[in-house]
Every structure is written in C-alpha cells, then in structure tokens.
Amino acid sequence: MEVIAILSYFEAGGALMWVLLALSVAAATVVLERLLFFFTASTDAAGLEARLGAALDEGRLDDAHEIASSSRSSLHRVFQAALAHWWIGREEMVLLLNQEIRREIFRWEKRLPFLEMTARAAPLLGLLGTVLGMVEMFSALHEGGQVTASAVTGGIWKALYTTVAGLSVAIPTLFVHSMLAGRIDSEEECLRRGADFIIRKRFRSANGGEGP
C-alpha cells in the first residue's frame, strides 16, 4: 500500500517528480562515494608525524620511506612526495609540497560541485513543477467553466507536491555538502601542518641542527 501511495504522489506531481528522484539518488551515491573516500584518505596525523619524525631524527631514510608508503592517505602521499625528492633545495621543496597539497585537495573536492548544484537546482525544479501544475489546473478549470473551492484547493495541493519534493532533496544535500566542505578545510590545514613538519625535519640544519 505504501508503494502505491508513493507512486500516486509521483503521478500527481508530474514528470519533474521523477527528475527530482533521479537527482536525489545521484546525490546520495555521490555522498556515499565521498564518505568512503574521506575515510580511506584520512589518517592519524599526530601518530604518523611521530613515527616519521623518529625515523628521520635517527637518519633511517629507508624506514621513513616505508612509513610514508604504509597507507594511501593524503598525508602519507604528501610525505611520500617529500621523501622522493629529499635532497632538493628548500624553495623547491616548498613548491613541491604546495603542488602536492593542491593535488590532494582537488581529489577531496571531486564531485562536491554536483552536490552544490543539486542543492541549488532541486528547489527551483520543485517550484517549476508547482507552477506548471497550477497552470494546468487553471487551464482545466477555465475550459470546464466551473470553479469550485474543492477543485481549486485540490489542484493546488497536488501542485505543491513538487515543491515539497524539491525542498526534501535540497535541504539534506545542502547540509551534507556543508559538512563535507568543512571536512575538506580541516584536511587542508592538516596537510599544510604536515608540510611544515617535513620541511622542518629536512632543513633543521638551518636552525643549528644536523644537516643532511
């Protein structure tokens, strides 16, 4: 019975209800994919820096390479890039790490514009469906020649289905997009702190420590 009721809502709302359904399914798929990526691309930054720092302080570059290659997280990938070019100059290292951070943030931001577009477009599609439904209703009333309160309210009630559907898609999508964008900001800060950490370890001789 619930399935039949849902189908009746979609039939009453018109073709745009199916467009909104497709958008909601696509947005949910993107969210699940991004959450999986965020999980695999994240790591314990403090623990990684402690293990890597101990290896570098003791001059164990092979162990440092192994630690940096132990995961495919974004911070691991930044450290891998630094260790792969360990003997370049300071300015070149800074440029390299900035490039790697931009590359990683691009991976984190992938497909988020689709969620933003969905959050913006869904209410407009819902409003369009409502306007089209009301145009159809008033056209039918005009041709029928009889205007009753039940006919008008019933037509408006059905026309508003798409507005409700559009808002139902947009609100959670906007909420999730904001959460993911905030997580990306946190990850970018983590990567920049990691870049500062590896630069200090590489060029500690500039502060009177041991040089390479």
Quaternary state, please? Answer: single chain
Instruction: Give the rounded overall mean pLDDT.
Output: 86
Q: What is the ordering of alpha helices and beta strands?
A: HHHHHHHHH
What coarse outline follows from CA principal-axis ratios? rod-shaped
Strand content: under 5%
Distance separating the two termini:
74 Å
Number of contiguous helices: 9
Largest sheet composition: none
Task: Give the total of domains.
Answer: 1
Structural class: mainly alpha
Work out the helicity level: over 70%
Ranges where pLDDT stays below 50 over 5 or more residues in a row are 205-212
Count all strands and give the number: 0
Any idea what the radius of gyration is? 27 Å
Structure in words:
The structure is a single chain. This protein is mainly alpha-helical and 212 residues long. The chain has one domain. It has nine helices and no strands. The protein has helices at 2-13, 15-41, 45-57, 61-68, 74-84, 90-109, 112-144, 149-159, 161-202. The longest helix is centred in the last third of the chain and has 42 residues, at 161-202. The chain is rod-shaped. The model is unreliable at 205-212 (pLDDT under 50).
